[in-house]
Amino acid sequence: MIEVKNLYFKYDEKFILKNINIEIKEGSFTAIIGANGSGKTTLAKHFNALLLPTKGDVIVDGLNTKKYEINARKKVGFVFQNFEDQMVHSIVEEDIAFGLENLELENNEIIDIVEKTLNKLKIKNIEKDNVNMISSGQKQLVALAGVLAMKPKYIVFDEPTTMLDINNKKNIMSIMKKLNKKDKITVILITNILSDLKYADNVILIKKGTVIFDGKKSMLNKKILKEAGLNA
Fold first, then answer.
1. CATH number where 192 lies
2. Position 43 pLDDT exceeds 90
3. Which domain covers residue 176, as residue numbers?
4. Which of 93, 163, 221, 226 could covalently link to 127 via disulfide, CB atoms 3.0 to 4.6 Å apart?
5. CA atoms within 13 A on the CB side of 50
6. Per the domain annotation, does 232 fall within a domain?
7. What is the pTM of this model?
């Protein structure tokens, strides 16, 4: 479980997050939604210690991120909105292997994990390709493959559909569903697009750095969405 307790986060003397108290349960598909600039990505970056609280605590499976940053990052993978930013090698299979090499695994084990991950995401056909020569949808899958190879318990997808065409949007949403339902990975989806909530069980709605709704998707209504600056 990811627990956020009395979280405040200040940037340039301004509080971006204020008194956040939420729980994300293991195995759930949780969407964190809000208008642009509401603080949802800033909140998500606290889950794997990319950011640390100004006040309050974030606890991942009993480990406080202030003390156990590395452990949090191993447990919580993060696929960035600008997924190209997390690519470090020019060849697909080498990029996916990068994190595993940092763990100093045996070469045979790395090769095996990379191959299984390529097959899982159905991108084995581009394993030798240059990442600069593949499509945006393929780049996103390569970024996800690098995260999946590390075998995280939780994965954050930061606005994954905004840079994709309709077919790739459908594909990434379907993959998220399978990772959650079949592989039992906890999925945390950051979005400002209501249609992205299709597979979410729980929704956390943020407005100006505060949570104004936290509950089952079925409990959302037009009034709450309007209050958050979202069109129902």
1. 3.40.50.300
2. yes
3. 2-227
4. 93
5. 14
6. no
7. 0.93
